[in-house]
Amino acid sequence: MVSTNQTRTAPIPYSDDVEQIQPHEAEHIQRCIDAMHRTNEMTFDQHRHGYRATHAKSHGILRGTLEIHDDLPPELAQGLFATPGTHPVVVRIATETGQLDDDRAANARGFSLKVLDVPGEKMHPRTPDLPVQDLLFNTLPVLPPGTAKKFMELAEIRERYFHDLEGMDEAVGERDDAEELTAFGRLANIHPLAHAYYTQAAFRYGDYVAKIAVYPGTAEQEALSERSVTDADPDHILRDLLASWATDRETVFDVRVQLRTNAETMPVEDAAVYWPEDESPYRSVATVRLPPQDAYSPARRVFADDRLAFRPWNGLPAHRPLGSVNRLRRRAYEVMGQQRFTLNATTGTEMTSVDELPF
């Protein structure tokens, strides 16, 4: 996919009516949170430890910088990306589900980015001065359960068949959207630093609306895609691959933005709809650089898995999460994060400095 600094069509300006509350949405959100809460309790009973409701199994936690380009055209110089400069960042790479899944099984992987030293008032009423912008990415460009209703239905299936994986597969397979919901299992199972990662859902992008992605930033890193995971690998192979690379090599990701240019083909309320890149390509706005480091030290793992939180609603109003799924996330991340802290008898931390991340 080629990054370009020219769009074919002018981006559609943001307006508050870009969002439309869906029928029975509040009920669907509450039912989804309740199902995830009960599922997390069952996970705790299995492991005697509290994990995230999604992206439970981490493969690496890294620190570095975000370098915002200084030559951006006006439509890309928005929000966080309006001012050129460098910000400290923390990155957590993990697998999508709330279980400690075997790395040899194909699945979606996640890339959580916490940008620090971000000035300005934030969206969260409890921490309006927190100098943070969180951005969450996934290896699939779309989110298959793209509405709060579908996310609720999938969460209830995962709860109902928690102890019966075959039954879970059958229940999903009977749905009309089974092809979409099983897409994670058909993704290439490769080195985690060779993936592109996407926000999937839409976000406000200053005066516009966009999706954001990160792509491997060097040819050497792209070549890691040739390393497929096989049945001969250990079940923690993704951690090993990431750690082996990060020990003595820089990791680079190119941050790109896809502006919304067509209201018909680029809906906001259904995150399962792919936004055509031939109508609006992803365009480079910044670079993430992660220097050589120990990406999975015991202290770092415990800090990131047990105390640290990444939330889509941690950040600037200029990057307000949009759509049904993001409105679900607003409540779900708060509730599920607090459950994780309670189960592990710890308190969450709101990072204000990259130096809080242990080595």
From TrEMBL:
InterPro entries: Catalase_sf (IPR020835). One of its GO terms (molecular function) is heme binding. This is Uncharacterized protein. It comes from Pseudonocardia sediminis. The lineage of its organism: Bacteria, Bacillati, Actinomycetota, Actinomycetes, Pseudonocardiales.
